[in-house]
Every structure is written in C-alpha cells, then in structure tokens.
Amino acid sequence: MICAREKVFGVISTIIVCTFFGVETTASADVILFDFGRGDTGISDLRTTGNWNNVHSLQESTGGGTGGTGVRITDAITDAGVVTTVDLNVTDDFSAVNAGGVLASDVYATSAQRDSFFVTSSDGAQIRLEGLEAGEAYDLTFFGSRAASSPPGRAFQVDIAGQGDVSLDAANNVDQTASIDGVLADSNGFIVLDITAVTDFGYFGVLEIDGDFGVVPEPGSLGLTCAALVCLMIRRF
C-alpha cells in the first residue's frame, strides 16, 4: 500500500512540476508564418490579420523606419493559433522597410505580400530563429515582392551556413517562392539566416517555417491539472 501510494505521489509530483514551470510539449508538424514590413503606411495598416506573426509591429516601435537589431518576436504562433517556444530575433539590421510590393494574394495575404524589409548591396542582414527543437529538420520558405519598372536588381539571397542557400527575384513577383528544406536546428535550437542583395536591393517579405515546434502550455491548463490531481488523490486515499 505504501509502495503504491509513493508511486502515485511520484507521478503527481512530476505532473505538477511540469505544469507549474511551463515544461513544453512538442506539436506535430505545423507551420509558422512571419510577415516583415511596415505596420502603417499612412494609407492602410499592413499588419496581416489571423494567425500571423507581424514582425513590423515591433519594428515600428523600435526601428524608427528600419528593421533594426533587437527587433524580436517571442513565442510565435502557428497558422492554427498554437503558441510555440519559437522566437525570431533580428541580430543584424536590414537597411529599411518598404510597402511597394505588387498588390496580389497568389501565395500569401495581400498585406503580407505587399510589404517587406530590404537590404542593399553594401548592407546585409541576419535573422536568428530560436527555441526550435535541437537536431530537428525544418523546411523554410521565403517570399518577397517589389513593383518595379526596371526589374533587374531586386533579388535577395538567403544563406544558412553549411546547409544551403537560395535566391529569389522580388521584381514584380506575385507567385514565386524560394525554399531550403531539411535545415537542422543546432544544439542550441537555433537556425541563423544571412540575407543579402544579389545585386542592388533585396526585398524580404515573408518567412514560412514547417516542422515540429515546442508548445507553450496554456495558463488555464494549470488549474485544470491541479483540480484533476486533487480528485485523483481524494479517490485514491
């Protein structure tokens, strides 16, 4: 009887610790979407509604018109609205923001396709994804658009050290994306993206990540868990 009681209390203690300290679980394969650009152009609000992570809402308050170092999204949500452990951190400035993409919604919402952060030939940028599952593989997809009467010189390139690189011409783009699949998060749960202009300018508007993500427990789950455990203890003893 004592042995059984100790086992029950051991299980209960483990559950309580995990619940109180927010130990995350892992979601099945899912999608996280980031929209880069301006929040308010003076014409319309370009933040994308729904289950998107709008990088520019932070950028507007801290960057003063540029995609500055320190711009950060914490606990990004999936396209199903699940809160994850994933953070996005701009660790090296973009040159500025732009709202001159082609008005279209062939791949993503118009508000996401229209705006972007951009880099120049002399000024690259860096993004660090954090809170991923160490050693887990992720598929990354990129989009950018810039309405341009002179198409050349609007492409960006993304490099992930030792794991691949890809470029995309944003000039008058409405439906083309570029991807790097099977990117492994390092031992810290990081993936680092280096973004440069292929020639003159590079317009980076959307980042999509597909894979398994750690999930942040909902606050309400604490009360439900504790209530269930109390009932279990009463019934058992």
Key attributes of the depicted protein:
alpha+beta, six-stranded antiparallel sheet, 4 helices, 21% helix
Description:
With 237 residues, the chain is α+β, with helices and mostly antiparallel strands. It has 2 domains: 1-23 and 217-237; 25-216. Helix content is 21%, strand content 32%. It is built from 4 helices and 16 strands. The chain has helices at residues 2-20, 55-62, 110-114, 220-236; strands spanning 25-26, 30-35, 53-54, 72-73, 87-92, 96-98, 116-120, 125-130, 137-143, 155-160, 164-169, 178-184, 191-197, 201-204, 206-211, 214-215. The strands form 4 sheets. Strands 4-5-8-13-10-11 form a 6-stranded antiparallel β-sheet, covered by helices on one side. Strands 3-2-15-9-12 form a 5-stranded mixed β-sheet. A hairpin with a 3-residue loop joins β10 and β11. α1 (2-20) runs antiparallel to α4 (220-236). The N and C termini lie close together (10 Å). Residues 7-22 and 225-233 have low confidence and may be disordered.
